[in-house]
Amino acid sequence: MKKQSWASRIGLIVTYLILVLMVVVTLFPILWIIGASFNPGTSLFSSSMIPEKATVKHYVWLFTSPDSHYFSWYGNTLKISLINASLSVLLTAGTAYAFSRYKFAGRKHGLITFLLLQMFPPTMAMVAFYVLLNMVNLLDTHLGLILIYAGTQIPFNTWLVKGYFDTIPRGLDEAAKLDGAGHNTVFFRIMLPLAKPIIAVVALFNFIMPMGDFLLPQIILTSPENQTLAVGLFGFINEQFGQNFTRFAAGSVLIALPIAAFFLFLQRYFVSGLAAGATKG
Amino acid sequence: MRTQTGSALSVSFIGEGGFTIVATDAKLTMQPERPSSFHRRRAALLSILVMGLGQIYNRQWWKGFSFLIAEIAFLIASFDFLNIGLWGIVTLGTEPFLDHSVLLLAQGIIAVILIIFGLGFYALNIRDAYRVGRMRDRGENPPTLRETYRMITDKGYPYLLVTPGLILLTFVVVFPILFTVAIAFTNYDLYHSPPAKLVDWVGFSNFVGMFQSPLWQNSFISVFSWTIVWTLVATTLQFALGLILAVLIHQKGVRFKKFFRTVLILPWAVPSFVSILVFSGMFDDNFGPVNTMLQNIGVGEIPWMTDPMWTRVALLLVQIWLGFPFSLALCAGVLQGISSDLYEAAEMDGATAFQKFRRITLPLVLYATAPVLITQYAFNFNNLNVIYLFNQGKPAVPGQSAGGTDILITWVYKLTFDTHKYNYAAAVTLIMSLVLMLVSLYQFRKTRAFQEEDLIQ
Question: What is the membrane topology listed in the Swiss-Prot or TrEMBL record (chain A) (predicted)?
Fold first, then answer.
């Protein structure tokens, strides 16, 4: 018995060692970029994690300089993210609910088609998106971008949400129907509230997505005042790497912080919602 | 809609203007005087002729006229579009500067999609006319407008739910795929770039040309093999790390569970393009903090950005950093769902920690997460962001058109946007998606998710 506890104590120590090591590895790049954003210089290489002369001038520049579009980028991105999240949730929840609870033509092969569709590599699609939006006069508009985001997310997220709906006992909605509740009542008043965790996950995914994507907006949004944060920030370092790195760092910290906060706030939903949705699918 | 007030009799208008009294009430047990397939045939035929005509024949006026108007409106509104589109997809334009081949091709594909939608609706219209006709043949009344509405919102509810998403999906997901397929069979590249030049259909010559030119052969094989290695190693390791950490945190004696879970999930919360660009700076050969640190502990500088082998190692490390939190969150959820009875029973039998992991945890977690794991493999197969942002697929390798760390998707990206070889890019895309879809389809079929299908009703 005593031997056993020695072994488990050593096991525990090893566990903590690994976990602490991983915490360091995880935090290092994050702390490094936060440090870089307070460095006085502009170059990546002269910056250090704990700057000797810390300054907030990059943050000030982002918000006050007449050359900076940061504010409108931020506004555009928030707008696109919010609309995309709401639209995606509506589309996905409806589709997933139909797949989970109803029989209809094409249901059986629909799901597996969704899975295969989402694997099609997106690069050539960029050209197609450009041509398509050009055809319907939605180039350089946020609406065009949102429609593409909301459409392309359907296959993957439908799967997640469908899996979650599947875990909700069928007796619940059947009982409601016996009591005379219509399809809409069952869907909006019973099923959607019960699926809140996975709805939160989908909303968050689609809220974050536009914040990190720079490929598509780069192609579709041509005028600088329509740009999103990701494209704008990428521009800081893409033109002359190193020249504006600290400014990029400051801009990045400002988008990463709210997302991370939001993320951690919704974390409890992840463990329950994601596991149920993803695994039962 | 009915000309008489009683429910027993209805007057129907047939053929050359004669009125026939048809008994419709079952109580009268009178057989319809016409052959039993009369109405359904005639209604279906009329609907084939012109949309809505069969419904009008069935005396469903509202439905019939709205179908009719819908058809006329569709034809008037889109006739030119469909006409040009169909002409365009066949010829791809005949006059440079005047005809834009690629736009014509896209319009042609949209035209085909619209026609398929139209035909589908047309088929529904015929079926509807046939069904209502059959009801009349049986002596039942055709559904009234209100009944039709109720039918649509009741039986049709799943279709109402799915339709908006499906329409968007058709244009945003299916159209790009069809477009890519089409481009793979044209000569659309820098030298055939509209509007100055026309693009032509060239059959399979892109595929043939690609496999015949040695420069391409070399690139394709080396890029393809690295793509496979990248996909397998990166995905497996990021999943394994996530799983191991989840198991470690889940252990009974471990404290600060919430702290560890929260901190270790952070890489997921930072937009990935930011972290990749930061890593790209950290792994800089000369000034990056990684090499500085390695020098301080006496290992010396490693050519992270200039030696293909080391760049690959760096990329794998970066992807593991980016990817493990998702697996951690996923596995943590699954672990919470595993009943502790299993472990207690195993402990009674004297199982070691490793045996418990190997025999209980691993199979259950793999079983539960298999579908997601497969999409993770597919995701890394198509992981453009990491490779392109970290080092643009560099360092360059002599004798091939792709860089030393290019995977298929970044190679396609460069072919598309840097060298404008759209035709080859589309051909490579087709090949890789076929491979990917077949492998995934095979894997999915093996997972339980599809064997459990149809628990419904």
Answer: Multi-pass membrane protein
Quick check: A271 and B453 CB within 8 A?
no
CA-nearest of B106, B45, B441, B329 to A277 is B329
More confident position, B251 or A273: B251
pLDDT for residue B21: 43
First to last CA, chain A: 44
Burial of B404 (0-12, 13-18, 19+ CB in 10 A): buried
Cβ neighbours of A248 in B, within 8 Å: 277
**B329 to A263: CB separation less than 8 angstroms, yes or no:** no
CA distance B166 to chain A (A): 8
| Residue A183 CB partners (closer than 8 Å, separation 6+) | B153, B154, B157
Question: Which chain A residues have a beta carbon less than 8 Å from that of B384?
Answer: 122-123, 215
Q: Kindly report the number of other CB atoms within 10 A of residue B276's CB atom.
A: 23
B122-170 per-position pLDDT tens digit = 898 899 889 888 888 888 888 888 888 888 888 889 999 999 999 999 9
Q: Looking at the structure, do residues A191 and A256 belong to the same domain, yes or no?
A: yes
The Cα-based distances of A67 to A61, A211, A226 in angstroms read: 9, 21, 15
Judge if A210 and A247 occupy the same domain: yes
Query: Are A55 and A71 contained in the same domain?
Result: no
- B160 vs A104, A193, B166, CA distance in Å? 11, 20, 10
Most confident of A83-87, B34-38, B263-267: A83-87
The answer to whether residue B82 scores a pLDDT higher than 70 is yes
Domain hosting A11: range is: 2-59
Cβ separation A135–B321 shorter than 8 A: no
Q: Are residues A23 and A143 in the same domain?
A: no
Claim to verify: residue A196 and residue A121 sit in the same structural domain: yes
The phi and psi torsions of B3 (rounded to 5 degrees) equal -90, -10
Yes or no, beta carbons of B172 and A103 under 8 Å apart: no
pLDDT confidence of residue B35? 57
Point out the residue among B103, B268, B457 whose CB comes nearest to the CB of A131. B103
Q: What is the nearest CA distance from A11 to chain B, expressed in angstroms?
A: 10
Contact A115 B440 (CB under 8 A): yes
Q: Which of A13, A19, A28, A124 to probe by mutation at the B interface, max B CB count within 10 Å?
A: A124
pLDDT digits (tens, 9 = 90+) for B18-75: 444 444 444 444 444 555 678 888 888 888 888 888 888 888 888 889 889 988 998 8
User: For A115, which of B381, B444, B455 is closest by C-beta distance?
Assistant: B444
Output the pLDDT for position B33.
52
Q: Which CATH class is domain B213-451?
A: mainly alpha
Residues A210, A147, single domain; the answer is yes
Number of domains in chain A: 2
